[in-house]
Design a protein that fits this description.
By secondary structure, the protein is of the alpha+beta class. The chain has helices at residues 35-48, 66-74, 82-89, 93-99, 101-108, 154-171, 176-198, 202-207, 212-220, 225-240, 243-250, 279-294, 299-305, 354-357, 365-376, 418-439, 442-449, 454-483; strands at 117-120, 129-133, 139-143, 150-153, 210-211, 251-254, 257-260, 267-269, 309-316, 327-333, 340-347, 385-390, 396-403, 409-410.
């Protein structure tokens, strides 16, 4: 369910009203310009919006107040969880940056636009890249968060990635020279990768991906023994993350049946959120929601899901920027207790990019997230789907669904030295270019970027200037918390 409180005035048959809205987008005529025309489009965009212009950054006179942005976002979130979000953002300027996608979207709206559109991640910072298990069970490296995904100018994602590198470098104490080398790696890697994709066959671009084993071999060649040991340990942890491991960590037996543990406020079983007389209603509602979600899967995956039965659900706090949105974990069982499937049902709100790039083509924001993920990733979770359901508070909300743990792993950004972060930034830049090449015009973007380092230097310049702004915004958050304007719950 999607609410933290029960209501007695809502009839049982109105608790959940799942449906599958159709996308508003309609197929139309597809143009097929020649390679020369596509390259000319990129060069024309360069003449109109010089690459060097992306290096500029000055806050607009109408720039929104960071505290006001957070307060506005809090209005649609679970009230008791909002202080946890603020506490996590307060840990460092980098964690603040992770939670400030809405603020940066407003800033990017005033920046030069190339008009060369791709499917944007919308929140392409360093910690939103990582490993996960592809359907063939090999670990791949890619973008792994799409809550803000929306079509838009390619440079918005690159700027957010570059800025995250600059902010992370400062958090790690890198000096100016070290940060410059790391900052330049983002734009250079993206530019060179995009130029490579522009020369590839269309299907080869679509199938291109980074296997973690290949990435490991390349990275290990210049890593220290200590770094390799830490990396191997982190990789082994990611490989072990699956539904069986989640069941072992997150459940215990109650009367012979596995139940999700209670660890409030981070994990709260569904029955602890409502009155006892509502338990049966909640159980029926969740089963109905799962049936509705099932219809968004392809036939083979729908058949797979049907082999599992619903057992239990709980609300779970996830991430930094997402804290306060409604996120649930659902335990399902196949043959027996050793055959679990853990799903995550996560609320999908309007993308923070929509006020500046237009309304999503999809009526359901869960579908917006899923379609964006499928378009940007070379391999996606086989259980990706979406639904809309009405909670006990009478509000309909959109959700997307995926496996909770499926080989997921993230890099330890807070433990990187300059050389490691530069290598990681290069991997992220290449991965972002591949994602953009799938949905956008690689030839046009490559022609815009060119062969010189103009774009690289512009991204590095922007990154440092925006890191200054981020640091100032972080101080504003601290002052707001000290003044009692916002509340925070640290350490959760």
């Amino acid at each position: 369910m999607t609410t933290a409180t029960a209501r007695d005035d809502v009839p049982a048959d109105d608790v959940v009203r799942p449906r599958r809205p159709r996308a508003r987008a309609k197929a139309g005529r597809v143009e097929h310009p020649t390679p020369a025309e596509r390259a000319a489009r990129g060069k024309a965009a360069r003449a109109e919006v010089p690459r060097s212009s992306h290096g500029e950054w000055e806050p607009s006179a109408r720039r929104p107040d960071p505290v006001a942005v957070l307060a506005q976002q809090a209005q649609t979130r679970v009230p008791e969880l909002v202080p946890i979000r603020h506490g996590r953002m307060l840990v460092s300027p980098f964690t603040f940056f992770r939670g400030a996608a809405a603020l940066m979207a407003a800033d990017l709206a005033d920046s030069p636009r190339t008009g060369l559109h791709v499917q944007l991640c919308g929140d392409a910072h360093l910690s939103n890249f990582g490993a996960f298990a592809a359907p063939d069970r090999r670990l791949v490296f890619s973008v792994n968060d799409f809550d803000e995904s929306l079509p838009g100018p390619f440079e918005w994602d690159v700027k957010r990635l570059a800025a995250s590198v600059a902010v992370a470098g400062r958090d790690r104490g890198f000096d100016d020279k070290q940060r410059k080398a790391v900052d330049l790696a983002v734009g250079r890697s993206y530019r060179e990768a995009m130029r490579g994709f522009a020369q590839m066959r269309t299907l080869d671009v679509w199938y291109a991906r980074v296997d973690v084993e290949e990435l490991t071999r390349e990275w290990a060649s210049h890593a220290t023994a200590k770094q390799r040991k830490r990396f191997d340990r982190n990789l082994a942890k990611a490989r072990a993350k699956d539904s069986l491991r989640a069941s072992g960590r997150l459940t215990h037996l109650v009367d012979g049946e596995p139940r999700i543990i209670s660890d409030p406020p981070l994990i709260v079983p569904i029955e602890e959120l409502v009155a006892p007389d509502e338990h049966a209603v909640i159980d029926t509602a969740l089963r109905g929601a799962i049936r509705a979600y099932r219809s968004t899967l392809t036939g083979d995956r729908r058949r797979l899901l049907e082999r599992f039965r619903y057992v239990h659900a709980a609300r779970k706090v996830v991430g930094v920027g997402s804290v306060g949105t409604r996120a649930w974990i659902v335990l399902m069982l196949g043959n027996d207790h050793n055959d679990p499937l853990f799903l995550q049902i996560k609320e999908a709100e309007r993308s923070v990019l929509e006020p500046y790039l237009g309304t999503s083509a999809f009526a359901n924001h869960g579908q917006r997230v899923v379609e964006g993920q499928r378009l940007m990733q070379a391999a996606s979770d086989i259980m990706l789907g979406w639904l809309r359901m009405k909670g006990l508070d009478g509000v309909e909300r959109d959700f997307y669904i995926r496996q909770l743990w499926d080989g997921k792993g993230s890099a330890l950004v807070d433990a990187m030295d300059p050389r490691t972060m530069a290598a990681y930034a290069e991997a992220c830049g290449w991965t972002l270019a591949r994602a953009h090449a799938r949905s956008g015009d690689a030839m046009a973007i490559a022609a815009y970027l060119g062969s010189s380092d103009s774009f690289d230097r512009a991204m590095a310049s922007f990154a440092e200037r925006y890191a200054d702004q981020n640091a100032a915004d972080y101080v504003v958050l601290r002052h707001a918390l000290d003044a009692g304007t916002l509340t925070a719950e640290p350490g959760l």
